[in-house]
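Practice problem: predict the structure.
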Amino acid sequence: MKKSIYISVLATGILAANLAFATPKQAVEQVRENAGQVLKILQKANGKNDAAIVKEVEDYATPYFDLELFARLVVGEQNWQQATAAQQQVLVAEYRKLLIRTYATGLQQYKNASVNVLDRVVTRTGSKTGALAGKTVREVRARIQNEGGKPAEAVFSAYQDGNRYRAFNVVVEGSFNLMVNNRQQANEILAKGGIEALIADLKMKNGSK
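Answer:
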């Protein structure tokens, strides 16, 4: 499970890095270029600058990962609509912290990885209602090979937002789904205590005040 989590955040850093393009073909070419850039950042890690490396990758990738959409899909449309604007902002902020913590523990393990971005891009239409309503979703596939390990396939989901794509989910080897795994955890808490209980749990995990 931990390996899948680490691969998912590596894929997020690489594939969300700069999805500023209009066509699937351009998406693949840009992702290949950005994979090299993110791996170059990771290769600068020396055991003493971990925080700086994570921050550099975060700054490079975060503008192209839709954290609000991720949080909305995790908590579910009904819960999201019932939450106040202030609660929604806190949820986005805490899920951002949660993903960054995962970056901090996982990215360094993949500093010597190689990434093969596949040419095939799957296009699908979002649901008729809810957070993905009316959105065109592209699924980009990549094989990630770490030193001494078996290759893993990551499927990265992004939707078109003007002349760029914004990421919202990563699936690794068909079994670890970044969004769904977080949703399962959230559902248990929401069923018992609602939005405030989920916020309290996220804050506890993140060490927030």
